[in-house]
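To: structure subgroup
Subject: Chain for Friday's discussion

All,

I'm putting the inputs and outputs inline so they're searchable in the archive.
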Amino acid sequence: MSAITYSDEDKEKGYTQDVVGDVDHTAPNDSVIADRYARYGKLGTVMQRILASGVEARGVERVPENERETKNMWNNLLMWWSVNCVLTTIPIGVLAQEFYTLTLPHAIAVIFCFGALGAVCTAFIATLGPQTGLRTMIITRFSSGYIGCTIYSILNILTQLGFSVTAVILGGQTLASINPGTLPLVVGIIIVALCSLIPCFVGYNLVHVYERYAWIVTFIVMLFLWGLGGHAGFDTSAQKPLEDTGRSLSADVLSFGGIIFGSFTGWAPVAADYNCRLPADTSSTRVFLLTFFGLFIPITFVEILGAALMTITDPAYVDSFGSGSTGGLLSQVLSPWKGGGKFILVLLAFSVVANNIPNTYSAGISMQALGRPFALVPRFFWVFLAFVIYTVAGVAGREHFSEILSNFLSILSYWTAFFIVIVAEEHFIFRRKNGPLGGYNLDDWDSPSRLPVGVAGIVAGCCGVAGAVVGMSEVWYTGPLGAKAGAMFGADLGFELAAAFAAVSYPPLRWLEIRLTGSCAREARDIFDCAIVVV
């Protein structure tokens, strides 16, 4: 244990702040992390052997500078391209016609506008990875405290597991549709889930190796789908007789926009997990731009494809969608190629593996971020547990894919909206170079007594929840403001109001928290720190 000292260069970057007291400021390397499991006797020996085989030891621990990598900057683009240029992105575009009866031009406009906003938000979160060397959920400790991080981690676990459920169901549906009656849907779901588990179990490096190249094949397949769909006949006015008008149309646009926003910001709670090994002096502008385009280009490209395929009016295509959902529609689109089309369906089915990898990997990280007792359990164990949970849930919900997707994505946009706002305001207002706190003391990441109490972040998050409740419009509930914004069924203003309520409440609450939790509160916070250690 030694007093923290920082170089002038560090202070100029705004990464640190002056603190009082001693703290272990050495970020543990991988070998130190692996040695922790020796305390578990024979079980610890098994764990150490697993880690010695090449499985990643590091979980939520901060990555020290001497273990940062100086290459693979383009992973910020290629990874997100691979993750989103996949089968699971197509049904999001399908929802424009299936649930909201939007014409193709209106669907495209919504995807572009709300997608750009969501990509900006997620790209910002990604810039914090190299700056801090921390996983995304751990970064929230600097705004919402230790307990706030636990709350966000629970939300993120549910989010990533929800994404995984939709991924394995759709992958299984597609495999089952290749030769109907041959492969049971349950078996297809299990196959896709197992393929997702392997790289996540091994860890960070294998995840990046896979995602660096996975996009190539699927991008070519998407081009094939565009061509075959165009040959079948896109009808941009097909939904015109069914499309709502006036306030009802506005409500459809806002509700579908919330889903699009959620499809982008769903990656915000994990965005820093995949570049925290880059050097601290990595250009934030480059990280932002590469992440933005790595999200925006493939997601809009594939979501618009999904919306376009729904404009095909050929009865065979309509019947295929009615009987087999998105998987059945894609099978019909590829039917002119016969055996070749079935091979492409196989590629599409397994493309969801690239999408499901970050869900699985980050679910394990978020389970460790729940608190120190959870962090003591190896990362690979939590990854395996996540795999079991979403596989079982996927099998149980396999007949309700569209309903799960629609409700899940719209609710997802609510909490990610206020999460992003709170982290951004902490970063730009309170942690800026000349701000009230002057930067981040990164070595405090696991010291509750030196982190914010978190009351401001938690209360602002509750305000965000209140905004979502009064503005949401779901099948099972419509908030008072959401009801007034639309016609018969209201309009979903959930994520907009969640962000607005959090944005207005957090700065004054945080300023008050800083004023009230200075040195006079140090003893009480040290007691809390000791309690966490005991637990």
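Points worth raising on Friday:
The chain is about 70% helix and 0% strand.
The CA atoms of residues 46 and 350 lie 32 Å apart.

D.
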